[in-house]
Design brief:
Largest sheet: 10 strands, mixed
Radius of gyration: 35 Å
CATH superfamily of the largest domain: P-loop containing nucleotide triphosphate hydrolases
Number of helices: 20
Number of domains: 5
CATH architecture of the largest domain: 3-Layer(aba) Sandwich
InterPro entries: P-loop_NTPase
Keywords: Plasmid
Length: about 775
Amino acid sequence: MSTLTKTVPNAEPAERAAAALQVLLPVGVGVLAPFLDPNAAAYAGAGFLAGATFAGANYMNRLGHWANQLPGIDIARAHRDTMGMSTITTGMGLALGQLGGAEATDALMAGALEPTTIPGILSLGWWAAVVFTGWRLRRVFGNRKITVEQPQAPGPAVPVNSGAPGPVSLADKMIAAWGRVISDPKSGRHKNQVLSDVVIYADRWEGRITAALGDSVNVSKESVSSLFHRPAECIDMKYGAHSGEALITVWYTQRPDLDPSTLQGAWKRVRARILPKTHLEDVGEDVNTGGQVARIVADDDLDALPRVVNLGELAGALRRSIDLVSYEPSRRDTRRAIIRVMDHNPLEAGHDFQGLDSLKATPGGWVNIGKIVSGFPAKIQLFDPKLGALHVVIAGTTGSGKGGTGQMISLAYHANRMAQIYGDPKGASNPAIPKMAAYSGLTQAGAMGAMRLSWWALQHRIAEAARLELKNFEPTATRPYCATILDEAAQMLAPGAPNRKEAVKIVKDGASLTRSLGMPWVLINQTVNLDQLGSEQAIRANLLAGGTWIILRTDRDQVNLGDLPPGFQGIDPSLIPPVWAEEDDSLVYDPTMQESDPRRTFGLGYLAAPGGRAGMMRIATLEDATEHIRPEHVLAPIDVPWWGDEAYMEELAMTPIPGFEEKDGEGGTGEAGTSFPGVDLPKAKELTSEEKVLATLRDESDPLYVDMLDQGEEVGPDDIDYVERGQLQAACGVAESTFANVLNKLEKKGQIHRIKEGKTSKVALGPRPPETGETAA
């Protein structure tokens, strides 16, 4: 046995040349581009487009099996990140040189000398990308020492002047050793199974094993382990294009999928306990978090990944806290998802509020209120041009950022010239919101008054819409959107709250009737438990179907995970830590070391907007919104004729709404329908499934359309107001198996009709008009 110790390059000359080209090409192209004649420039542009297409497909791992036959494809795949950056910087140099000439090239190359100018900033970014590419490739240009022990096979000595070539590189020597010990046709352990195409990297070497024609590769890992003195678990072998070919990888260092500190290594635990029949692809570094990001892909015998994963269990299997793990299912491909394992949460640093103009809504009603962990903006939809105003629910325990989130939502309404009615039973939860509201009711009695005014304003808009035959709400300066914000909602809606039944009635009407009338509701509460929202399934169903839910950290003993809305399954908000994790978790106190103060995870939680999935996000940091308030943006619903008559408004605020006027003297609740001494009121009869569907459909439909049906007016196809089947089923609470039969019975009776629109089914009250020409769902 002989031992060879030698300083060798970390990579073969071909890989070094490819790395050098990636670093030098952007600079060279940028210098030469202005001096190309039109024909050469056209050829250069076509060549760049072809190269960029290849680099892009290579970066996204979208090259087909045909690419396996290309020379140097292993180098291209190993360098796909740096090739992508080099392609971008080369394209910038080529485009500026051809379009702007030498002057533009000078600005790109030398603009960094004036970093305060726009060309200087562009130049700095370009040079940073070029230098970063070289820094990422630094290992390719380095050298290392390696020791290879090889058995000496007996054989005739080769004369010095015989002309027979000897091994000239480490790869050649490894192939020669393989030939003597494993593939030798007479004495080899696995005869005629030849090693070729050896490529040496800093942490491994790879090669191809080819068997004789008609044979299969059967080289054992033990034979390779004995020859190259590497443990069998550091050797990976798999078949190539056919059984007579195998690809071998021998790792010098511990394989990533065997290192439990890496995402690949920890995935064995995840596969065994959380996500069986899955594997990782495109594993890479996440520069935003210092951790790793990868695609989760279902194996061939698994058709789809689960849409919901228990995030607490997933974080435990990955040995991370819940705020350092993100699972994002693909919205289009059910067999793929994105997993992020972070060393630090990028949301920890926070991000300052960018001013009132940053909350200006898009034409579709979307505004950015913060960031999600992937770096994308956290968006909510205030209104929809077709659906109308959309509700918002905010939940979180004390200190979680619930007040700051409510302030941000109110400021978004303010930025988009929406009127606001504010009720706060505690009296001083958020001092900035009353300054933006058209009416504020503080303390418990004041909050009840604000809710009553909201209800009366709703009654006016319902009557006005019926009188003027208004269908879709069109906001104006005199008839704006008008949101009702109820802080600490449980103090008005939970069991034992004064005037609870009246408050529940107001919120129920608001949740179910206000969207098409421009009057959304915002409920702010410590929990999302149903009993804290009035114990009314209709309230929860309409809030689910018509808006955004933001859930911050919630105490475990308060949260009922069964009450979480769709998209939050598998997420336990109580696992959000109250403070960000600290590095100095020492066992013994050291008085010489200064301890840092804990920093709270203020504003950290999960957001689910319509059609989306809950994502970890953090609200933009804003201590007090007062400085951003613009007096001209404080609007009131002056389309309500009595708005502005302070005496009349105060009377409405102090008077229970119709049906809740009766009082019982001592100990009375002021709620209609309560028990009275000596009187046993009959309990309300429980509705049948058919009655529930019809009642919910009436609540969900446009009041104008319902009135036309009730009055027997002629209804044209354009007047019909349809409700999506899924929305109706969620709102009425009837089980799916029963729901389908109920729809069939009601349609046969002529009480409803259905249409098919794309892949969805819609339902409307009344029989089908003969001129619609639709087919039943």
